[in-house]
Amino acid sequence: MSETVPAKKKASLPADAQLDRLVHDPAPEILIAVAADLRLTEDLALALLNRRDLPPEALPELNRNAAVAKLPKVQLALVAHPRTPRHVSVPLMRGLHTFELKQIALQPAVAADVKRAAEEVLIGRLTSLSSGERLSLAKQGSGRVAAALLTDKEERIVQAALLNPQMTEMYIVKALKGETGTERLAPAVAHHTKWFHRTEVKAALLGNRNTPFARTVQIAADLPLHALKDVLRNARLAPNVSKYLREVLAKRAGRIG
Fold first, then answer.
1. Alpha-carbon dihedral of residues 233, 235, 241, 245, nearest 10 degrees?
2. Which of 5, 34, 86, 118 has a CA 20 to 30 Å removed from the CA of 148?
3. pLDDT of 58-102, one tens digit each?
4. Closest residue by Cα to residue 192 from 221, 223, 222, 155
5. Closest by Cα among 60, 67, 73, 62 to 23
6. In the predicted structure, residue 6 carries a pLDDT above the cut 50
């Protein structure tokens, strides 16, 4: 019969411990004990969290430390720390403000899955955010968050999202191929100096019912035949657009033949 191994006792610090010195200690067990110490202040907790070599075991201890766990700056630093376990960081995100989540999603040092979780929380909040908050996210949020605002009800927010430095062709094409919410997006992209000239964007515009017909005519003349055939095969086109594209395809195919 195997013996039960006793649980390892967590180190505790003496009453006269100088926490302001110990937060810089190299020993992992000391740092874990400091993280759990109820004498910890906000400044000392942040000093700990500034250490990228902080042992992973210290981060849940900080999250459980009643002296600092509820402080907004500590919560933000915990979420942003590259060693914070996901089961700690993700629940904390729900209590963060919009601009803090935006900051998390844009920080290079934050793990990709944590960034994505921050984006998901932000996207889930969009319908409850003010126009000004959505405009700020459209301008300065991550590409994925800005992409969620491409179908916003306000023209200025759609335009801001298109100008977001993180915006990509892939996000725009995906939005244009969506079934709803492109009443403002398709005309905006169709007249956009940067995005209109991309081949994949043109194809997506051609298959979108909200694209101005004058732009449809221009795109049909520019796209290669295989792209026109693909749009006719896969897109839900208005009858007049479908008829026009078939005529263009027949004429161009005849010229080539």
1. -30
2. 86
3. 999 999 999 999 999 999 999 999 899 989 999 999 899 999 999
4. 155
5. 62
6. no
CA distances from 141 to 74, 147, 194 (A): 22, 9, 19
Q: Over 90: is that where the pLDDT of 7 sits?
A: no
Q: Please check whether residue 151 is in contact with residue 181, taking contact to mean a CB–CB distance below 8 angstroms.
A: yes
Cα 198 to Cα 162, 192, 221, 223, 234, distances in angstroms: 14, 11, 14, 10, 19
What is the model's pLDDT at position 255? 66
The whole-angstrom separation of Cα 12 and Cα 39 is 12
**Residues 40-49: contacts with CB under 8 Å, at least 24 apart:** 40/65, 40/67, 40/68, 41/67, 41/68, 42/68, 42/71, 42/73, 42/74, 44/19, 44/20, 45/71, 45/74, 45/77, 46/73, 46/74, 46/77, 47/23, 48/23, 49/74, 49/77, 49/78, 49/81
CB atoms near residue 85 (< 10 Å): 13
Query: Amino acid identity, residue 188?
Result: A
In the block, residue with structure tokens 């411990």: 17
Q: Burial level of 247, CB count in 10 A (0-12/13-18/19+)? A: exposed
- The percent of the chain in helix, strand and coil, each rounded to the nearest 5, is 60, 0, 40
- Look up the pTM and report it: 0.82
